[in-house]
Design goal:
Radius of gyration: 21 Å
Number of strands: 19
Shape: elongated
Helix content: 10-25%
Strand content: 25-35%
Distance between the termini: 17 Å
Bound molecules: NADPH dihydro-nicotinamide-adenine-dinucleotide phosphate
Length: 307
């Protein structure tokens, strides 16, 4: 069976694309992937998604979006797409359930994954003081001390944002100079609540049920110290989940899918991208949903124009 639309990925972008495509009678098929609901399922309260006066739980928001997509007869498959073939039409899709699928248009909404340090204590205390999203979790650290790891624009932006809540923010960076743009660096240097610790890495997150500090190691002197804090924000970059496309679609150096200006069209006619797989700048739940809506409308118009 050749589908009009197949959506790959199930975060805010994918579910919103499904709602719009389904309401356009395109009977979309959506692959939920390895993390059904996407990155919002690993956050606690979402206070900046419009329509919820007193916040909404991240997993609950995704459950509601999923149910809304199902109500309009989206077909969901609990599998991950392993391969796509853009060289033939309809496009061919292989999933890890061993089945092959075909589609006239594709919407790629596979999201991104925050890069983590890869230490055991970090995953154990994730959501209990460790976070990879200041906009999502910063509010919970009012008047507390926070460590931010990273030296790029994300780290500077998150550190600056966190000073709205925290009593003190300490940026821990593995080198003695930042990668961030000069303007973002200056903003952080000028902020009296932000301190820097250079040439240093986080070896361990301390605490049993919540973060009480971090063990830091100076990589030039090998000296270690236990540094007290209640929050640890990892800001060492995100990786878009686009490796399965294996160089078949135009991306930037990091792997973000490049779309046309004012549209979600990729360089392959009939293939659209949305959400964090395509957006390296805003990366918000509401922008993911917005671009998911745009991708579905673009797919519908593409089908109309070609049939
Ligand atoms: P970047 O890749 O630019 O920076 C990642 C930082 O994390 C680097 O300083 C890097 O150190 C450090 N790092 C990486 N791995 C580790 C590790 N294992 N342990 C410790 N530190 C580590 O990622 P960003 O997310 O900051 O930015 C991604 C892109 O998005 C950039 O192009 C950026 O300009 C853009 N962006 C723009 C914003 C804006 O303009 N408002 C806001 C946010 C992002 P090192 O420097 O030593 O490599």
């Amino acid at each position: 069976m050749v589908r009009d639309v197949i959506i790959i990925g199930s975060g805010g972008a994918g579910y919103t694309a499904a709602i719009y495509a389904a309401r356009a009678n395109l009977q979309p098929l959506l692959f939920e992937g390895f993390q059904p609901g996407g990155q919002l399922t690993i956050t606690s309260e979402v206070e900046n998604y419009p329509g919820f006066e007193s916040a909404v739980d991240g997993p609950e928001l995704m459950t509601q979006m999923r149910k809304q997509a199902l109500r309009f007869k989206t077909e969901m498959i609990a599998s991950t797409v392993t391969k796509v073939d853009f060289s033939q039409r309809p496009f061919k899709i292989e999933a890890d359930n061993g089945e092959n699928y075909q589609a006239k248009t594709l919407i790629i909404s596979t999201g991104a994954t925050a890069m983590l340090l890869g230490i055991e204590s970090e995953s154990r205390l994730m959501g209990k003081g460790v976070s990879a999203c200041a906009t999502c979790d910063g509010f919970f650290f009012r008047d507390q001390e926070i460590v931010v790891v990273g030296g790029g624009d994300t780290a500077m932006e998150e550190a600056t944002f966190l000073t709205k809540f925290a009593s003190k923010v300490t940026v821990v960076h593995r080198r003695d100079e930042l990668r961030a743009s000069k303007i973002m660096q200056q903003k952080a240097f000028d902020n009296p609540k932000i301190d820097f610790i250079w040439d240093t890495v986080v070896e361990e997150v301390l605490g049993d049920d919540s973060v009480t500090g971090v063990r830091l190691k100076n990589i030039k002197t090998n000296e270690t110290q236990d540094f007290p804090c209640q929050g640890l924000f990892i800001a060492i970059g995100h990786k878009p989940n686009t490796a399965f496309l294996a160089g078949q679609i135009k991306t930037d150096d990091v792997g973000y899918i490049i779309t046309e200006k004012s549209s979600m069209a990729t360089n392959i006619p009939g293939v659209f991208a949305c959400g964090d797989a395509q957006d390296s700048v805003y990366r918000q739940a509401v922008t993911a949903a917005g671009t998911g809506c745009m991708a579905a409308i673009d797919a519908e118009r593409f089908l109309q124009a070609h049939e």
